[in-house]
Amino acid sequence: MPAAEPVAEAPLDDDEIQDLLASFHGHSALVLAVSGGPDSLGLMVAAARWRALAGEGPALHVASVDHGLRPEAAGECAMVVEAARRLGLPATILAWEGDKPASGLQEAARDARLALLVAHARAVGATGIVLAHHREDQAETVFMRLLRGSGPLGLKGMASTSERDGLALLRPFLFVPKARLAATARVAGLSPVHDPSNDDPRFTRVRIRRILRDLEGEGLDAERLAILAGRMQMLDAAGAHHAARLAEATTVPAGTQGAEAYDGTTWLEAPFTDVLRLLADAIARLGDPDVDARLEALEGLTGEVLMAIAGGEALRRNLQGALVSVSPQGRVIVAREPARRSARN
């Protein structure tokens, strides 16, 4: 984890920029997601500085999404394009067109934004998208998942590197305070835009942000929640390792393409968490990628599977678009859930 910053609102210096953006190496081109807010402007300035310091490396393309939700958005995107031009970076405005939902607007906007960024990355030959999520974003994510009863898989928060549709999603600032990104933009002469939705209590994240401000006086601040996420990521990595070893030791031929099979009889001697993680990973690989399984559902399924194995009983359960079957002999098969047939007239 990066060391704590020496000054809370100091801009990122050259050494920090080179360290934080080291993941840029190895990419042929990257898309920088820049909304015009202080954090994403800080990302753009830091990326431009990194490119100048490196002297070589991936081509950097700035993309700003106009969600079509506010009349000011078009002008804000134009400001981003002009700021990028001043930094020597090409920039494109991406528009979210079509009808907007009456409910779940922020979630729909987030999904649409990412889809537009993915399409643009493919168009410019980029291998990754860089997002400006910072320490406070990570803290809000962890706290929201804590309220929903998430386990280590949820409390690990956002990963610094993940994948979407074959593209890398890079989040290099998860341990950097938002104030430092804002300062990085400010010293470059850039003035951020203000999105009023960030103050609208109708949205969950805004309410969570206010709760966290109140909890800072009790010692639960963004830094501690971000540290918690980092520790959960280490525990998650250990859990993944143990589950992979269990899977390797118990895998048997499935006999069916697109399925995985295991000799579950030895699972009865394994830690419950290892079996749970094995099933969760198999379901994630073979099930519906657009459906998230809640921890309670995974725990319940794991318990049912182990009870069926112990009792020599057959079992069939569906979860997250996957079908999990247990034979009386303890053979466990995980496969994609068959497509539902329409009812006959």
From TrEMBL:
PANTHER family for the chain: TRNA(ILE)-LYSIDINE SYNTHASE-RELATED
Binding site for ATP: 35-40
One biological process term in Gene Ontology: tRNA modification
Protein name per UniProt: tRNA(Ile)-lysidine synthase
Domain comment quoted from the record: The N-terminal region contains the highly conserved SGGXDS motif, predicted to be a P-loop motif involved in ATP binding.
Keywords: ATP-binding, Cytoplasm, Ligase, Nucleotide-binding, tRNA processing
Enzyme class: ligase
